[in-house]
Amino acid sequence: MEKIGIVVAMEEEYSEIEKIITSKKSEKICNIDFVEGEIKNKSCILTKSGVGKVNAAMTTQILIDKFDIDYILNVGVAGAINSNMKIGDVIIGEYVVQHDFDITEFNHPKGYITGIGDKVLCDEKLISKFNSSIQKNKSVNYVIKNGIVATGDIFVTDIKMKEKIRKKFNADVVDMECGAIAQVSHLNNKPFLVIRAISDCPNGNNAKTFDKNLELASKRCADVLQKLL
Fold first, then answer.
1. What is the mean pLDDT of each run of 10 residues along the chain (229 residues)?
2. What CATH number should be reported for the domain holding residue 224?
3. How far apart are CA 67 and CA 80, in angstroms?
4. CA–CA separation, 152 and 154 (whole Å)
5. Which distant-in-sequence residues (6+ apart) come within 8 Å of 208 by Cβ?
6. DSSP 8-state assignment for residue 7
7. pLDDT at 151
C-alpha cells in the first residue's frame, strides 16, 4: 500500500485533516508531531510544520527521512492574487515559485534558485489523478482550478506587492510554505502536489479576512483531500 505524506502549517488545517484520519498513532520528532493512520483506506502521515519556509523544509525532510512515504501533499490555506478567485475556492498547483528569492544581481531572474531553477513542477500524475477524481465527483459546489503558487516568508497584505507578484510570476495564490516543501521534495525525488484553499485576498486589511475564513478554508482543504483519495 502506498503511503502519503501530508504537510500543513497551522493548527486549524491540522485539526480538520486529523478528524478524517482513522487508526491513528502519533510520534514526536524534533518537537514536531507526526500522526500515522488512514484516510479512505489510504495510508498517510500527517504533520504540522509551523509557518514559514525553514519550518516547512525541516519538517518535510524529517518526513522523508523517517517515514517510507511515496509522495507528498502540501495542504492548506492561501491568499488569492488572481482576482477571479474567491474565498473558499481551491487551487491545485501546476508549479511553485519562491517570489522572495532574489539573486537578480547575478543575472538570474527573480525567483531563480541555484540547482533548482525558477520553479518546481508539481507531479503530473498526481495532478491528473486529482482532476479525474474531481470530475467524477458531482458533489463539488465550489471552484477548483489548476494554477501557480508563489511562496515567500511574508504574509502579503500590500496591494502593490500582490500586483507585483501576480505580474512577475502570473501566480494565482500566495503562501508561506509551499515553495520550500516543493524544493525539498524535488531534491529527494519525491512526487509532490499542493492543494490550497482561499482564505483571503491581499488588500491592506486581509489579516482580519484571514482570521474570519481560516476555519472555512481549512474545512475545504480536508474535503478536497477526501475527494482526491
1. 93 92 91 93 94 97 95 96 93 96 94 94 92 72 90 94 95 97 97 95 90 89 83
2. 3.40.50.1580
3. 33
4. 5
5. none
6. E
7. 97
What phi, psi does 156 have (nearest 5°)? -75, 120
Euclidean distance between CA atoms 41 and 76, whole angstroms: 22
Alpha carbon distance 77, 91 (integer Å): 10
| Structural domain that includes position 27 | 3-228
Which residue is listed with cell 533548482? 116
**DSSP-derived secondary structure for 41-87:** TEEEEEEE--SSHHHHHHHHHHHHHHS--SEEEEEEEEEE-STT--T
Amino acid at residue number 195 = I
179: nearest Cα among 17, 80, 55:
55
Contact by Cβ (8 Å): 70, 42:
no
User: Residue 176 is which amino acid?
Assistant: M
**In this structure, what DSSP letter does residue 29 have?**
E
Grid cell listed for 52: 514559514
- Residues forming the active site: 13, 200
Which pTM does this prediction carry? Answer: 0.94
Tally of domains in the chain: 1
Residue 189 has which C-alpha cell?
A: 525525488
Question: In this structure, what is the dihedral angle of CA atoms 171, 135, 143, 182, given to the nearest 10 degrees?
Answer: -30
d(CA 77, CA 214): 7
